[in-house]
Specification:
alpha+beta; 20% helix; 13-stranded mixed beta sheet; 249 residues
């Protein structure tokens, strides 16, 4: 089993645990929900593959971390499951942020920068730690973001059987998007589509257009929901995560 598949399975289980005790605050949900149709499952099955084909895309979100609101603006490479961004917030100096499926690395950033970090990426000066999505909302969101790409389309039948839900359609930034609740689990799929409808069982909601391209993801964390927006692709891979000059736990 690939690392991405293994992390995906563990991630879904983690989202379920967090969902049991999170804030009742939820993102706006259009009329619905209902199980996805076969056609909708086909569309949803292409979403992570389209991200992978785009190689890397711009990404932006604001995440609560240690009592601070951290604005993250940068890029995610879906082929290597890595990201590179600028992190800004009131009360702390801007940082450069780099992550993959297991490590988060930081170093001081430009005091005036709130946009995507410039290239080339620094090759030294990084401090790293092991990613800990069970205790850090920031790490959980970064992990989900970097795991939204796959090198092949998903199985639409398994998406149906696993409990994927249609939640409705809405105009977002000039795009007609459909909101789906991702399956609450990748394992234990039944042999027929699920009949129960519980939009609260999933900790991940994907907003996609008519061809399956992802524009937005809502991720449930310990304090509620975090919205992540996705923009244009770069068409090129990000550099490999440099070996940090210092390591901290």
């Amino acid at each position: 089993m690939s690392l991405a598949r293994t992390v995906s399975t563990a991630l879904v289980a983690l989202l379920l645990v967090l969902g049991a005790g999170c804030s009742p605050d939820t993102p706006d949900t259009p009329a619905g929900p209902r199980p996805v149709t076969a056609e909708e499952a086909q569309l949803l099955a292409a979403t992570r593959f389209l991200n992978y084909n785009a190689v890397s895309r711009s990404v932006g979100t604001t995440i609560g971390a240690r009592g601070q609101q951290v604005q993250v603006t940068g890029w995610v490479d879906f082929t290597t499951h890595t990201g590179y961004a600028t992190a800004n917030g009131a009360g702390f100096a801007p940082q450069l942020l780099r992550w993959n499926l297991g490590t988060v690395a930081v170093q001081p950033g430009s005091p005036s920068s709130t946009a995507e970090p410039g290239m080339p990426m620094p090759t030294s000066g990084w401090q790293s730690r092991t990613m800990d999505p069970e205790r850090s909302d920031l790490d959980l969101v970064l992990l989900v973001i970097s795991n939204l790409g796959l090198d092949r389309p998903e199985n639409p039948l398994l998406l149906q059987q696993g409990g994927a839900l249609w939640l409705g359609t809405e105009q977002v930034d000039g795009h007609e998007l459909t909101q789906y609740a991702a399956p609450p689990t990748d394992q234990g799929a039944s042999t027929s589509p699920q009949t129960s409808v519980d939009p609260g069982a999933s900790g991940l909601r994907l907003w996609i257009d008519e061809v399956g391209r992802l524009h937005r993801a809502d991720i449930r964390v310990s304090s509620g929901w975090v919205t992540v927006t996705f923009g244009d692709g770069r068409g090129t891979s990000l550099p490999a995560l440099p070996t940090p000059s210092a390591t901290r736990s």
